[in-house]
Here is the input.
Amino acid sequence: MATITFIDPEGARQQVEAEPGKTLLEIAEEHEVKLGSACGGVCACSSCHCYIREGLDSLEEMEESEEDRLDMGFDVRPYSRLGCQVKVPGDPEDLVVEISEESIATWYNEHPEHRHEQHKKGVPA
Here is the structure.
């Protein structure tokens, strides 16, 4: 098992154990990490956009469909990936994943019952 540390835009960290073969989005949903998924994780949007801070070299290279969707994202960086497309490798290395502002804003839009938290943390609406 790999350890994945998710970091939200405010710097809060959540560390979870992850099984190889699962996507970052699946892992986030299992552990109640706020990672957006407007399309349901089928690579049809960029709402699960995140930054791989550590462990990028251990991941499979992105496919063209992921590159195309990242072109729709905001603040795309060389270490940007879509959580629905990144699978934990079979020989897992620990990962540090920063959730983008775009993704957490989408999560709050998908979960309006939690919007009061958004304003307390200063997350953009």
Notes: The first helix runs from residue 24 to 30. The beta strands are 2-7, 13-18, 49-54, 80-82, 95-99.
